[in-house]
Amino acid sequence: METPTETPAQTPHVDARQRALPLSVVAVAAATFSVVTTEMLPVGLLTSLASGLGVSDGTAGLTVTLPGVVAALAALLLPVAVRGADRRAVLCGLMLLLGAANLLSALAPSFAVLLAARIVVGLCIGGVWAVAASLAVRLVRAESVGRATAVIFSGIAVASVLGVPAGTFLGELASWRWAFGAVAALGLGVAALLAVVLPALPPSEPVRLGAFPALLRLPRLRVGLIAVALLVVGHFAAYTYVRPVLERVPDVGAGLVSGLLLSYGVAGIAGNFLGGTFAARDPRRALLLISAALAAVVLLLVPAGSSLPVTVALLVAWGLAYGGVSVSSQNWVMAAAPQAREAASALFAGIFNVAIALGALLGGRVADGLGATDVLWLGGGLAALALGVVATAGRGAR
């Protein structure tokens, strides 16, 4: 169902109250915050989790890898499975399931049970992103879609800055089980909030498996998906190993690395909103700017290793640039396939999650085979390639 809010001509005058985003947008942002926090929580709890369940750190890492793979599949398949369902009911159901999966994680008597719970988490991650990413246009007036999309996608950056560190702190203070229990309560609370504040959202266009090959035949959409795949693979290839890259800089200790990563996260929040504002007007120009900035910043970190001030400045610029990738790419996808927003968003979410897993895998092989610094060449090179893809698309992709 397309709401009247999507027609700019129906809103010739907008007062301050109309410009304010509704609580429904904040509730959807809370859902994205919850799934990203849940997805990345084991990163900060890996050692205690492995020790508590009697597995190696490498084996415990499956709690991050497995949900990512499942999320990529779920992003494509779940919208097809629930194509006739109200999207409010789908989101509420997924958040309830996320809460239950996190509760099972907290009570897991063995690593096998924990992995089973994390498979369910992956289903929720993919499903929430496939549905939530395209909701802004149905919740707000046309002139506010850009801001609403930025708020929904801010859940990614805020989870990195607040959600995961808070869960890690709770895990250190009590135990990793309490951390999972806290995100279980968060998921259930968000489900209740969504049920109260979201309007009825009948499916606007039923998603079928055949829609995905048809969408890939759209040149503009294909360019955007290729560009975001290159950017995300390059980013995660490099950022996954950013700690050893930072530790090579003179006078950088463990405490300073944590502060630098916090600065990166805060810059990412700012980049999300800046990218969303810019991309709402011109997604292609936003992706050109972001790709160029990421390529330059990541590659410049290679010779900057001897200077702490330069490294700090480049790391903050990295966070600022990458913070705009998700929201700018989503704006591109929505503009490229306005007749099939949810199917295009599902395709986008699937490719994004595959790119995360592939980036970490490629980065690991390069780091093990050549060295941590060489992942910067890989990440910067892929960002430069993304810049070329968007640039050569020319005005035909606009």
TrEMBL record:
Keyword terms: Cell membrane, Membrane, Transmembrane, Transmembrane helix
Superkingdom of origin: Bacteria
Question: Could you tell me which residue ranges the Major facilitator superfamily (MFS) profile domain spans?
Answer: 23-398
Pfam families membership: MFS_1
Where are the membrane-spanning stretches? Answer: 20-41, 61-82, 89-109, 115-137, 149-170, 176-201, 221-242, 254-274, 286-304, 310-333, 345-363, 375-394
Q: List the signal peptide residues.
A: none
Question: Per UniProt, what is the membrane topology?
Answer: Multi-pass membrane protein
Protein name per its UniProtKB record: Putative MFS family arabinose efflux permease
